[in-house]
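User: Show me a protein chain along with its predicted structure.
Assistant: Here is one chain, sequence first, then structure tokens.
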Amino acid sequence: MNTCRMDHVSYAAGPEGLDATVARIAERLGVERVKGGIHPRFGTQNALFPMTEGQYLEVVEALDHPASLSAPFGQLVRARSEQGGGWMSWAVATPDIGRFERRLGREAVPGNRRFPDGRELSWRQIGIKGTLADPQLPYILRWADGQEDMHPSQAAPAQASIARLSIAGSPDRLREWLGGTEDDEVADVSVDYVAPSGTPGIVSVTFSTPKGDVTL
């Protein structure tokens, strides 16, 4: 089975900047943020909200850095922030990113984030260009082996969980993007699809929190 696992959802900071956007979301969810870091290859930085089930919410912003203009992920973040911020994308993790490389005809791009103690979290990702073209589509990650304790979901004890995504789009388009067979599905997430009235993409995300269910 080629099942991908739901990994995280990404929210682009608005014109108020990363810290103010994170503070607003933390107050809504009733949970504490965790400091993220800089993605030097992409020209971005983030803050994290660890979730249960090995998932997390990231709030991300583009830096005044050339990579945010040239790297597809930096372009994605910058474009969403320039639209006022809000839900940007979601990502799924796979143990076999090679099949996506073969199907899309290009290699996955390496990513990394260095911790203050010198450890380095690394991964490969592919599909950002697909997300740029059709924002309902997740991009795909392959985390490096042996780094489970550095995964963003482990940055602090989880205080909430991702209960449901509402996406303007089509489940058939998602299945086609992930491979086109009945086995190509995303585990560990409930997705409600609504007909897009404008640009497809994430409409809202519902979290189970200490305050009860909260929808952003």
